[in-house]
Amino acid sequence: MADLDGKxxxxxxxxxxxxxxxxxxxxxxxxxxxxxxxxxxxxxxxGQVDIFSTAELLVAPIxxxxxxxxxxVKFVLDSFKLAVGVKKDxxxxxxxxxxxxxxxxKNGTLNAIYKKHHGNDxxxxxxxx
Length: 129
Prior knowledge:
- The chain has helices at residues 16-24, 37-45, 56-65, 91-106, 109-118, 124-127; strands at residues 8-12, 30-34, 51-52.
- A three-stranded parallel sheet has the order 2-1-3, with helices on both faces.
- It is built from six helices and three strands, in the order βαβαβαααα.
- The protein is mainly alpha-helical.
- β1, α1 and β2 form a beta-alpha-beta unit.
């Protein structure tokens, strides 16, 4: 986080990134807020900001479409556990979903799927649960 000192950092207004960077960012960081991810990414790609904070899953597609910009993840602000929802009282389906997730985390398939689409490994907070 200290490396952001002296940098212009883009974020989307009202997101968890905005909140965390506002609280924890160094005093010399200039935080510029945008209304959506597309506008923020365009600001980064055009050089209006030095660094941008976005959902990790958006980095790989942005980097793929803009290889000259050499985009890389420097650090992760936070990891969020997302869930699969099933209808209430569908215990059998819930058990099958949980079994599939556990088996495919263990055998590496879920990580391979995640890496294919996001360009990096599943966060440790997911793998170690």
